[in-house]
Design brief:
The chain has two domains: 9-194, 2-Layer Sandwich (Nucleotidyltransferase, domain 5); 206-262, no CATH class. 34% of the residues are buried. By secondary structure, it is an alpha/beta fold. Helix 9 crosses helix 11. It is globular. It contains eleven helices and seven strands.
C-alpha cells in the first residue's frame, strides 16, 4: 500500500561515530524524500567529522565494525556544518520525518547537528513516524527481522544507511497492508501511533502530562508543571540554558519560558 501524503515526508537513516547525541558526529546520511504527487528523491551523503576547533575526529574502531566506514572514506568529504543549510532547505524544511528507531536516535542526532550548525530546525509542526515503534507495538522485533517478516526478504548490507533506509520505507508500506484495521494511511495518524512518549523535546526532558500540561521529567522539579516553575523558580530556566543539555531541549525550554513569562 502506497503512503497517502498531504506534504513531503523524508525517510532517513544515519551512521555515526557513536550514540552520544551531544558529542558524536554524523558520518553518513541516506534519505528518501516522497512527495504527495508520487515523486521520489533519494541520496546518500557522507561527512568528515570535526570538533568545535575544526580538527578531524578519528572514527572509533567499534563504530567502524558496525557500519564499515573508515577515516579514509570520509577524509575528502565536506563537514555536516558545510552542508547543513542547503540540506535543510532542499530536503528537510516543510517535511515530515520517518525512520527506524528514529524518534529515539536519528531525529535527535540530526536536529542537534542542524542546531550546532546554526540551522534553527523547529520540530513543533513536524510529524515523526517511527517504524520501529509501530513494529514493536504490533510485532516486537528488529529491522532485519521486520524486513523478513513483512517483506519476505533478507536484509543485505544491514547497517548500511542506504540499505536500512530503503528497508524501513518498504516495511512501513507492508505494515499498512497488513494492519488496515490498526493503522490509518495518514502521516499524522502514523506519527501519533508510533510515538512512545509525549515528550516535547527529543531528549525527553520536557513532556505533557495526562492533562496536557507541560512538565519537567527530571531533577528537583520532576513532575511539576513548567508554568508553576516559571512562577516559583524562574532561575531554573537559566540553569538549563547554561547546562549540558541538547540544543533542541534548550530550544523548547526557551520557548516555554517566553510563553509563561508573557502570561
Amino acid at each position: 500500500m502506497e503512503l497517502q501524503l498531504k506534504r513531503p515526508i523524508v525517510f532517513f537513516d544515519l551512521e555515526t561515530t557513536g550514540i552520544d547525541m551531544l558529542h558524536d558526529h554524523i558520518l553518513e546520511l541516506s534519505y528518501i524524500k516522497l512527495f504527495p504527487d508520487g515523486k521520489e528523491e533519494s541520496r546518500t551523503m557522507r561527512f568528515k567529522p570535526v570538533n568545535a576547533l575544526g580538527a578531524v575526529v578519528p572514527i572509533p574502531a567499534k563504530s567502524t565494525e558496525v557500519h564499515g566506514i573508515h577515516d579514509s572514506d570520509v577524509s575528502d568529504c565536506p563537514t555536516f556544518a558545510q552542508e547543513a543549510a542547503t540540506l535543510y532547505e532542499s530536503v528537510f524544511k516543510g517535511s515530515d520525518l520517518a525512520g527506524f528507531n528514529s524518534n529515539k536516535f536519528d531525529v535527535p542526532m540530526l536536529v542537534e547537528h542542524f542546531l550546532k550548525s546554526g540551522v534553527q530546525y523547529d520540530l513543533s509542526d513536524v510529524r515523526m513516524v517511527d517504524v520501529q515503534n509501530i513494529y514493536h507495538k504490533l510485532e516486537k522485533r528488529t529491522l532485519s527481522a521486520a524486513y523478513q517478516f513483512y517483506c519476505h526478504k533478507e536484509l543485505e548490507n544491514a547497517h548500511s544507511a542506504d540499505a536500512d533506509t530503503r528497508a524501513t520505507y518498504e516495511v512501513l508500506k507492508a505494515q499498512l497492508d497488513l494492519y488496515p484495521d490498526d493503522l490509518e494511511n495518514d502521516v499524522e495518524s502514523l506519527a501519533e501511533f508510533s510515538a512512545m512518549t509525549k515528550s516535547l523535546d527529543l531528549a525527553g526532558r520536557v513532556a505533557l502530562n495526562d492533562e496536557g500540561k507541560e512538565i519537567f521529567t527530571f531533577g528537583k522539579h520532576k513532575g511539576k508543571t513548567v508554568e508553576s516553575i516559571a512562577k516559583t523558580d524562574p532561575g531554573f530556566f537559566g540553569w538549563m540554558m547554561r547546562g549540558d543539555f541538547p540544543l533542541n531541549t534548550k530550544q523548547v525550554v526557551k520557548r516555554l519560558e517566553l510563553k509563561y513569562r508573557k502570561s
